[in-house]
Amino acid sequence: MHDESPEAPALHTWEFAADPYPAYAWLREHSPVHRTTLPSGVDAWLVTRYADARQALADSRLSKNPVHHCESAHAKGKVGIPGERKADLVSHLLNIDPPDHTRLRRLVSKAFTPRRVAEFAPRVSELTDRLIDAFAARGSADLIHEFAFPLPIYAICDMLGVPREDQDDFRDWAGMMIRHGGGPRGGVARSVKRMRSYLAELIHRKRADLGDDLISGLIRASDHGEHLTENEAAAMAFILLFAGFETTVNLVGNGLYALLRNGDQRARLQDSLARGETELLATGVEELLRYDGPVELATWRFATEPLTLAGVPIDVGDPVLVVLAAADRDPERFEGPDTLDLSRANNPHLGFGHGIHYCIGAPLARLEGQTALAALLRRLPDLRLAVEPEELRWRGGLIMRGLRTLPVEFGPE
Ligand code: HEM
User: Fold this and answer.
1) How buried is 300 (Cβ within 10 angstroms: 0-12 exposed, 13-18 middle, 19+ buried)?
2) Please, are residues 50 and 292 in contact by the beta-carbon 8 Å criterion?
C-alpha cells in the first residue's frame, strides 16, 4: 500500500505488519478517514476512529456487494477489484445486502444457534486436549501449526458433519489457503474449488439421510416456508468454514502471544483458572479480541450514494475499509487503550464487527478461544516464547492479523 500524504506512515512494511498500532494512532489523529492506494492499485478509504467505524459498519448506504464498485469503476474507465469475477461476487453473506442478506442470515441463524454451540463444548475440550497430548511430552512446539491452526478446522468440520476420515483433506486445503492467502493464487483457487465441491456433494448425500449436524440443520432450516437451496447451503457451509478458520487461528495465536508478553496478566489468569473461576477467562478473551484482534479490517464496503464520513466526502462506488484494529485502540473510547487489562469492563470492541453483518460465529469463536487458552495455561503452566519477539513473523495483508509461527518451550508434562 502506498500513500499520497508525505508524512503519513507507510502501511506495507514488515515493521507495520509486526506493530501497526503506532501507524493507526497517527491516522486516528491526523487523517481519520484516509485515502490510500492498496497494493492492488485500488484506491480506498480507511476509517480508524471508533465512533466513525461503528457508524460506517451500520450505514446502509455502504453496501457489501462489490458490483457497486465494479460498475462505478467501469463508468470511470477503471477496472473493478482485480482478480474478482462478477459471477462469484454475490454468493455469500459477506458479499450481499438486504433483503437477500436478511433472508439467508435468518435461515442460517435457525441452524447455527448459540445452543448448538454450547452443546458442542465437550467436543472442543476433547479436541483441544488431543492436540496438546501430541506435543506435551516434547517440551517445545509451534503453537500455530500444531495447535491454533488445526483446532478450528477440526471443530467446524465436526460441527458441520464432515466425517473424521475426510477432515485431514480440509486441513490440507485450509493450510494452502492460509499459507498462500496473499500470494500465488493457483493452489488457493484449487483448494477452494475442492472444498466447495466436497461440500456440495456432502450436502447432496445428507439430504437423503439427515442427522444432528449443522449441515443437516442448514438443510432443515425454514423460515415462512422458505428453505436454503442446495447451492445456498453449500455456499453457507463454505463461508462458515472460510470466515471461521483463519480468524480463530489468530485469536488463539495473537491471544497467546499477548499473554506471553504480559506476564502479570497471564499470572492473574492462571491464578483465576487454578481457583476454578471463569469470569476472567471470559472478559480476558474479549480483551484479547480488542487488544490485538484477528481481523485487522472489516471486509469491503462500497458507497451506493454520495455520503460524508467525519466530514470527508465519499463518492459513489468508493471502497470504504473499516479498520477494526485501529478503532479498538481509540483513546476516545477505551481508557488506556494500549494496555492489556483482562478484567476490562465496558468493552464494546469491534473485533466481531457491528450491525447486520456482526459475526454469526462469535459464540463458537469465544468457546474455542476460551477453551484453547485455558487448556494450554493449565496443562503447560510455564509456557514461554522460544525466540525473541523480533524474530517472529506476522502474515501481512491488512485484512487478517496473525503470526506465521509461535515457537514455545515448557517443562514436559
Ligand atoms: C462476520 C470476526 C470467527 C463466521 C464477521 C465479521 C467480523 C468477524 C469482524 C464482520 C465482517 C464485516 O462486517 O465486514 C470474527 C472473528 C472470529 C470469527 C474475530 C474469531 C475470533 C467466526 C467463526 C465463524 C464465523 C468461528 C463460523 C463458524 C462468520 C460469518 C460472517 C462473519 C458467516 C458473516 C456474517 C454476515 O455477513 O451476516 N466475523 N469471526 N466467524 N463471521 Fe466471523
Assistant:
1) buried
2) no
Opening angle at CA 349, ends 347 and 350, nearest 5: 165
The Cβ of residue 393 has, within 10 Å, a number of other Cβ atoms equal to: 11
Cα–Cα distance for residue pair 150/253, rounded to 1 Å: 12
The answer to whether the CB of 105 is under 6 A from ligand 1 is yes
| 394 neighbors 18 (Cβ within 8 angstroms) | yes
Residues 378, 105: Cα–Cα separation, whole Å: 37
Strand 407-409 and strand 384-385: the pairing is antiparallel
Instruction: Give residues with Cβ within 8 angstroms of 139, minimum separation 6.
Output: 409, 410, 411, 412
- Identify whether the C-beta of residue 219 lies closer than 8 Å to the C-beta of residue 206: yes
Q: Is the ipTM of this complex over 0.90?
A: yes
Ligand 1: residue of 93, 247, 370, 399 to mutate (most ligand atoms within 8 A of CB) is 247
Ligand 1 near 254 CB (within 6 A): no
C-beta of 320 in contact with ligand 1 (< 6 A): no
The string of pLDDT tens digits covering residues 267-296 is: 999 999 999 999 999 999 999 999 999 999
| pTM (2 d.p.) | 0.93
Closest residue to atom 34 of ligand 1, CA basis: 94
